[in-house]
Amino acid sequence: MNYMFARLNVYDLLRRIFIEEPSVPLLQYLKTIDMDYLVPHEELNVSSGIEYLANSLNYLKGITISTTSQAYQDLHWDYTQLFIGPHELPASPWESSYKHDRLLFTQTTMDVAKFYSENGFYLPESEHEAADHIGFELDFMYHLARNVDFDTSLLSFKNIHNVKNQVNFLENHLLSFLDELMRKIQNSAQTDFYINMSRFTKEFINHDYKEIKKILLSTNNKK
């Protein structure tokens, strides 16, 4: 249960990093963040990933962040050129870009949206972005992680069902394109912030999948 709680902060961070262009309040918050609070080493043993995250946050500590600063403009442009355009995207943020259809709002997008709705997660009606955007998928993982019932045992039906859904979503969706997307970010990002954040994201989510799968197997064995 300690691990399940510790990972909440990480998914909260990752969804904010990838869901939209960086904002001044978010970057200013990241400049002051306590690494031990965000990623408690005794609970989240991803040693190389921790180093990447520290490098990413240290990059922010060395720059001035305001809407007029060059460093902020560089980060904003880096996100834009990676995930929005106007040119061909070097790191398409949609799962469907890495599947057989390679088109948005087709079967892959619908499958992800269905998984969301079955677990009580809905995008705003005003949202026109495809449901299989990496930012939304990370937001969904945060939603599932937050809905673990920390007042009961992991052996409770609700928690076993929740963890099973997290494993299934990682296997069938997020992990199916994560490594390739993060590799493209590393190859195309122009700032150390996004290069190191992509490295950390890959390390953490692959580690997290192994950990919660072990938890699921353990709970199944104890039933």
Automatic annotation (TrEMBL):
| Pfam families, sorted | Nitrate_red_del
Superkingdom of this protein's organism: Bacteria
Under the heading InterPro entries, the entry gives: DMSO/NO3_reduct_chaperone, TorD-like_sf, TorD/DmsD_chaperones
Record's Gene3D superfamilies?
TorD-like
Q: Which UniProt keywords apply?
A: Chaperone
From the Swiss-Prot or TrEMBL record, give the protein name. Molecular chaperone TorD family protein
Give the organism, scientific name: Vibrio porteresiae DSM 19223
